[in-house]
Design brief:
- By secondary structure, the chain is an alpha/beta fold.
- It has one domain: Purple Acid Phosphatase, chain A, domain 2 (4-Layer Sandwich), CATH 3.60.21.10.
- The chain is 16% helix and 22% strand.
- The strands form two sheets. It has a six-stranded mixed beta sheet, with helices on one face.
- The two termini are 14 Å apart.
Length: 247
C-alpha cells in the first residue's frame, strides 16, 4: 500500500513497513494459523515490522510462545502493547502490569524492541526515522508526553504505535506523521451498508482503514489477525504493508 509521508527523509523513500496487530494469542486462536501469518509477513519482505498491541489475550501462559512466534519475523521488530497485554481477564488494566512486564522481557530477549512510552530510531545514510510506542489508552500508564519527550515533530519524521484509535486526539498534538492502531478488529462482523454494529470505541469513525487527521497526520486502523470470538463476516484479517514515499 503506497503511503505518502510529508517530509520523509530521502533515505527512507520506498521503506516497506508491515503492521501486525491483535494476535490475541491464547487457546482460541490457532497457533498454526498465527505461524502462517508470520510466514505471510516474511514473504512480503518488509524492512521493519511494527506490532501494535494485543500480542496475547490476558494470558501469562502464552508469553513464551508469543516471544518465540515473533522471533520468527525476519525484519527488525518494534512492539507496543494493547489493553489485553497487561493483566488477566481485565480489558481495562488501570495501573497493573502483571502480564506486560514479563511479556516485555520475553520479547526483548528474542530481539524485539519494546516501546512503552518511549521512542527508538532507525538509521539510513545518516538520516533517522523515529518510531514511538505508547502504552495503552485504557491503562493509567498512557503518556504521550513521556513517549515524545525530546522529539520535535516539526523537524523529525515520527511514526507512532498507539493501540487504541481513540488515543488519536491525545497523540496528534505531538505532530507524528503516521499513527498505527488496531484494537477494533474492524468490528469482526460488518453488515453491508451499515458497517460494524459492535466497536470498542468512543469515536466510531475510526473503525478500520486510513484516516486524515489534523496537523498533516494520518492514522491507519488495522483489522488485525486475531479475534476474541472466532467469527468474521465481511471483515477479513489483514497485515497491511505500507511503502513510504515523500511524494
Amino acid at each position: 500500500m503506497p503511503l505518502t509521508i510529508p517530509g520523509l527523509p530521502r533515505a527512507f523513500d520506498g521503506l516497506r513497513v508491515a503492521q501486525l496487530t491483535d494476535l490475541h494469542m491464547d487457546d482460541h486462536v490457532p497457533l498454526a494459523y498465527l505461524r502462517r501469518v508470520i510466514e505471510r509477513v516474511n514473504a512480503a519482505k518488509p524492512d521493519i515490522v511494527l506490532i501494535t498491541g494485543d500480542v496475547v489475550n490476558h494470558s501469562m501462559e502464552w508469553i513464551d510462545q508469543a516471544a518465540e512466534l515473533l522471533a520468527g519475523l525476519d525484519a527488525p521488530k518494534f512492539v507496543s502493547f494493547g489493553n489485553h497485554d497487561y493483566v488477566p481477564w481485565n480489558a481495562r488494566p488501570g495501573p497493573f502490569t502483571v502480564i506486560a512486564d514479563p511479556l516485555e522481557k520475553a520479547l526483548r530477549d528474542t530481539g524485539c524492541t519494546v516501546l512503552r512510552n518511549r521512542a527508538s530510531s532507525i538509521d539510513r545514510e545518516g538520516e533517522k526515522l523515529w518510531i514511538v510506542g505508547i502504552e495503552d489508552l485504557w491503562s493509567t500508564r498512557f503518556s504521550p508526553a513521556d513517549a515524545f519527550q525530546g522529539l520535535d515533530g516539526r523537524k523529525l519524521t515520527i511514526l507512532t504505535m498507539s493501540h487504541n484509535p481513540d488515543s488519536a486526539p491525545h497523540v496528534v498534538p505531538y505532530l507524528p506523521r503516521l499513527i498505527l492502531a488496531g484494537h477494533t478488529h474492524g468490528g469482526q462482523i460488518r453488515v453491508p451498508l451499515l458497517g460494524a454494529p459492535l466497536l470498542p470505541l468512543v469515536d466510531r469513525r475510526f473503525d478500520q482503514g486510513l484516516f486524515a487527521l489534523e496537523n498533516a497526520c494520518q492514522m491507519y486502523v488495522s483489522r488485525g489477525v486475531g479475534f476474541l470470538m472466532r467469527a468474521r463476516f465481511c471483515c477479513r484479517p489483514e497485515v497491511p504493508v505500507f511503502v513510504l514515499s515523500a511524494k
